[in-house]
Amino acid sequence: MNFIYLANINKLSWSVLQDQKKILSHSAQLDIEKFRFDRDKCRNLVGKMLLLYSLQRHEQFQQSYLPVIDYGLYRKPFIHSIEGNFNISHAHDWVACVYSTNGEVGIDIEYVTPINIIDYQNAMTKNEYQIALNDPHFDFFQLWTLKEAIMKAQGQGFYLSPSSFELPFPFRNDAIVEVNHTRWFVYSQSFANEYRLSLASLYPIVRNVQVIPLQLDQFRQ
User: 4'-phosphopantetheinyl transferase domain location, by residue (predicted)?
Assistant: First the structure.
């Protein structure tokens, strides 16, 4: 099962939120303070708060602080002591954390804005680019968030080029995309009018996902 927790940070200020740094290790607190802008500090910390909320509800985790987060070769975060898998993403006013009970998972959200598709040619295969230029039903933000979700689930991030694999068009949820001999089930939806959210999982998603918006008071310690 995949559980996606979402929080809106539009009305949050760092001066109010920063007390919640206590859920993090000392080194993780110092990492957050390295961000130049308070908005980025809020996004980072709320992502960790959502992760702690997930562990408390799905892993019988009793602590009020996060266990140590380690990072793989390509900087994918993981926690040795938990049974499930997780991934975090944020864009503009929204932060998302997915917790999966059945294998590796990746999530991406993006704020949908007008773009010039020519500027993003390198993010697509030649076939995808031709579709983008010629098909009025092409949705770049759907394609981009799906690709980034796969790249994160694969554990390589941008070390895996988004133009090195292709998504089916027209897209349907629970389609399968094979990348480096791994088959990923993919899911995408729009939300909050101006955002696109996409997920990649080792197992079928469509009937196996819950998207849960939260208010800050529901998971703040």
Answer: 105-199
Whether the predicted model's global pTM rises above the 0.90 cut: yes
Backbone angles phi, psi at 189, to 5 degrees: -155, 155
Considering the chain, what is the average pLDDT of its residues?
93
pLDDT of residue 185: 97
User: Beta-strand (E) ranges in 9-149?
Assistant: 70-71, 77-78, 85-91, 94-100, 105-111
Paired with 3 in beta bridges are: 99, 210
* Contact (CB, 8 A) for 144 and 123: yes
d(CA 114, CA 60): 43
How many residues are there in the chain?
Answer: 221
Domains of the chain: 2-219 (3.90.470.20)
Alpha carbons 45 and 125: distance in angstroms, whole number: 35
| Other CB atoms within 10 Å distance of the CB of residue 209 | 18
Cα distance between residue 216 and residue 10, in whole Å: 11
Q: Do 5 and 53 contact (CB within 8 A), yes or no?
A: yes
Cis omega before residue 67 (within 30°)? Answer: no
pLDDT at 220: 52
Residue 48 pLDDT more than 90? yes
